[in-house]
Amino acid sequence: MIRQHIADILQNTQPGETATICGWVRTRRDSKQGFSFVEINDGSCMKNLQVVIDADVEGYHEHLKDLTTGASVRITGEVKDSPGQGQRVEMQAGNFEVLGLADAETYPLQKKRHSFEFLREIAHLRPRTNTFGAIARVRNAAAHAIHTFFFFFGFLYVQTIFITCSECEGGGSMFQDTTLDLARLAEMKTQLDWSQDFFGKPASLTVSGQLEAETFATSLGPCYTFGPTFRAENSNTTRHLAEFWMVEPEVPFIDLQENMQLAEEFVRGVVSHILTHCADDMEFFNQRIDNTVLEVLHNITQHDFIRVPYTEAIQILADSGQEFEYPIEWGRDLQSEHERFLTEQHFKQPIIVYDYPRSIKPFYMRVNDDGRTVRAMDVLVPRVGEIIGGSQREERLDVLTARMEECGLNPGDYWWYLDLRRYGTVPHAGFGLGLERLIQLVTGMVNIRDCIPFARTPKNAAF
RNA sequence: UCCCCUGUAGCUCAACGGUAGAGCGAGCGGCUGUUAACCGCUAGGUUGUAGGUUCGAAUCCUACCGGGGGAGCCA
Predict the structure, then answer these.
(1) Which residues, 6+ apart, have CB-to-CB distance to A330 below 8 Å?
(2) What's the pLDDT tens digit per position in A274-331?
(3) Which residue has the higher pLDDT, A225 or A171?
(4) Where in chain A are the domains?
(5) Which CATH code, of 3.30.930.10, 2.130.10.10, 3.10.560.10, 3.60.15.10, is assigned to A127-162+206-450?
(6) What does residue A258 show for φ and ψ, rounded to 5 degrees?
């Protein structure tokens, strides 16, 4: 008999039908009167299926004790109306088979709440909990929504490189990638000879797919990349990972305003998709994790993001009368406390800050006519902060070259990137969205380390 | 990287210079169409590591290691 998913049984199966399920025991309640309740979860949804096993079922007396929390089972039985509270239907077991035992004395997950700190230490088992099952399903829905959104609007999905030899963002923040025998080289105390390395020169893991995406956007039209990125920054916060997933659309023939429009519709589209496809999981997050989550998400789907030029944002902060740790001064970047004030207290909703001072932004952002600002934009959301960073790209060869030099970069290293301006240059724009920060926003989870299956942070790569 | 907090039973915590406790979980028993089930009993700890102060250290001091929060950097 073919296994059915519990989500399907709970929703669609009618009383009287027979079904087979496979999954893991969440909890068992025995009655000495001659039957037991066993709750089975198979990950297909938040809810468990309650299975009633009568004492006359084969193997009851010998094997019922093996149905401990965490044990894996296959059960076939008849679906029935449930006389109890809490579920539409339940299963009356015809037979059950224990596939894998889980020693109750040593199995780390208990029938009670665990701290997220503890669960991080058992990252290989935490997907078996309600919270991490829900996060995994929401993350999956988000990934699906991302591809669906871009497919619908005719974007090309481009798979960009993970290993790069361009030192785009400065070597300090990149993970070096080498096949040299470093231990032996250290013993020999000789000069490093990069020509002996795999690529014949230093290579690193990518920190962004943007530059490569631009080559496709300026050839084939709207495109996007979606994959892991790596930052070797020693960041120890609730919103930073050394390895995280980023969505980076890049679109030719649009300006910053249209880029903001795209970013807004993109976030709205993904959030709507999750709300409709993960209703049970979202209800769980709203009840158990953060009771403002649904309100915030509905706000996103129903209201436009407020767009505020950087200069105006600075003015709002200066006029707020708030005491800030960091000074408010035109030319300084917005600090976390400033972003939080704007999104959580002043506007109380997502905002887009744009036209930042050129001195605090990278070389590839298009310089405005005022000469002192660039067409950059950040989407800031309550609680999480910056969820998207993007810009219109500098399409003028002379300005771009000058900006590289201004930023201390050698234009020669970016010859292929400059070729995109040298031959048939076009105005274009794009942005990057951190997937895990989106998951933080959507689920209400406080720590980004709980928003990715296996978190990579400084001094931590246990799984 | 900087600042603050923290490390005690499987988990969550108490004990605040004088022999280490509770709740939950687990084991056993009882009860029950139960659903965070309930009731009783039992087992379980060189107090992160290494030094130091003291008659005496989980408790005070130092270093190291781990965890958390905040900041910077950013997505």
Answers:
(1) A311, A314, A357
(2) 999 999 999 999 999 999 999 999 999 999 999 999 999 999 999 998 888 888 999 9
(3) A225
(4) 6-100, 127-162+206-450
(5) 3.30.930.10
(6) -70, -30
Q: Look up residue A422 and give its two tokens.
A: 């040298």
Does any strand B atom come closer than 7 Å to the Cβ of A244? yes
* ipTM, 2 dp: 0.91
For residue A334, give the DSSP letter: P
A130 touches strand B (CB under 7 A): no
CATH architecture of structural domain A6-100: Beta Barrel (2.40)
Q: Give the C-alpha separation, A396 to A366, whole Å.
A: 8
Q: Give the pLDDT confidence score for residue A369 in this predicted structure.
A: 96
Kindly tell me if the per-residue pLDDT of A172 is higher than 70.
no
* Strand B nucleotides within a 7 Å radius of protein CB atoms: 1-2, 10-13, 24-28, 30-37, 65-75
Taking the CA atoms of residue A52, residue A55, residue A60 and residue A61 in that order, the dihedral angle to the nearest 10 degrees is: 140
Report the phi/psi class of residue A327: left, alpha or beta, with left for phi > 0 and alpha for psi in -120 to 50: beta
Residue nearest to nucleotide B1 (CA to C1'): A234
Is strand B less than 7 A from the beta carbon of A386?
Answer: yes
Q: What pLDDT sits at residue A187? A: 80
Cβ of A210 near strand B (under 7 Å)? The reply is no
